[in-house]
Amino acid sequence: MTFLDMLHTAGQRNASMLCVGLDPDPARFPGAWRGDASKIADFCASIVDATADLAIAFKPQIAYFAAHRAEDQLERIVAHIRRVAPHVPIILDAKRGDIGSTAEQYAVEAFERYQADAVTLSPFMGFDSVQPYLKYPGKGAFLLCRTSNPGGDDLQNQRLASVPGQPLLYEHVAQLAQGPWNLNGQLGLVVGATYPDEIARVRALAPTVPLLVPGVGAQGGDARATVQAGWTANGPLIVNSSRAILYASSGDDFVDAARRVALETRDTLQAARAL
Which of 64, 110, 174, 180 is the most exposed place for a label (fewest CB within 10 A)? Predict the structure, then answer.
């Protein structure tokens, strides 16, 4: 199955737009696991088991594994997801942005070593930095477009005087992803949940590409506003929540708490479609 096929299947089967982000921070692990980086895989597996029937995707953030020399545990988590939720796609959050042979090696890392179904990329070195990933049939690539951090305005909200219509930079990225760069229908866009007006603008410019929306939960994004701005019947919406689910409890009930928050978020997102 292609990444888009998996998205459709998981979305329908789990009635979900919720992406569960896997950002394991040993300093926030529960009980006896706290501070123990060797428990990263165990912690993430517990979260996956608790939310596998609620998620449209899982999104491991590579830095949380690499910082603790836990890349092997990331491989174990991917294998675990394949066993317990083979219909749920895996988005590797790496935000790579290089060109040439280096980009080719990053693509090998994402799609061959870690067996991800999609990866996040920075597009600001141009199409050269995206093309190597598109050589993998059926895989997805999400381009940073309008991110949720305040500093995103420094570049993303600047007007391009040399481009017809003088779009803002993030608008131009959206147009490229919907059009000339999307050679095989593999591209999606990353748009932060803290800017619902910009989500709506991106969706207007890119009506059919998947939107990956981080920032719901601990970062303060509004789930209902996100769905109302970005959901359409023909454009997949993937709304990520990480810390609010992972660290819903610091006690022995962390699995039950994670499931409860994931279920509430999933249901809130689904209900917003009807508003």
Answer: 180
